[in-house]
Design a protein that fits this description.
114 residues; Glutaredoxin; five-stranded mixed β-sheet; 5 helices; 39% helix; globular
Length: 114
């Protein structure tokens, strides 16, 4: 139960998922979730990071999660992520929308709302 409390404390912040906590943070979430598949070496991914941080602060009723494709390739493979950054919108544990590349905050916010 400690992980659940920790997750609630992190609302409004970007969270990081890997194979051990992806199910809890994304699939079992009771709110919309945006998942950013990224890598540390990826320039466009670094460009998208501050936009996601802003979106997380402005939308505490949603969750923004980052998955490093180098550290969790099995998750990226499961969702057929072949280019980064790729952002997937999840609702009720299912991927609902996908966006590849850098996008403006309004586009990402719309993904959360749809």
């Amino acid at each position: 139960m400690q992980n659940v409390a920790q997750t609630k404390d992190q609302r409004g912040q970007v969270e990081h998922a890997d194979a051990t906590n992806f199910k809890q943070l994304v699939l079992d979430a009771d709110m919309p979730v945006l998942v950013d598949f990224y890598a540390d070496w990826c320039g466009p991914c670094r460009q998208l990071a501050p936009v996601l941080e802003e979106l997380a602060r402005e939308n505490p009723e949603a969750r923004i999660v980052k998955v490093n494709v180098d550290d969790a390739p099995e998750i990226a493979q499961r969702y057929r992520v072949s280019s980064i950054p790729t952002v997937l919108a999840f609702r009720d544990g299912k991927a609902q929308a996908q966006l590849v590349g850098v996008a403006p905050k309004r586009t990402l916010r719309q993904m959360l709302e749809d």
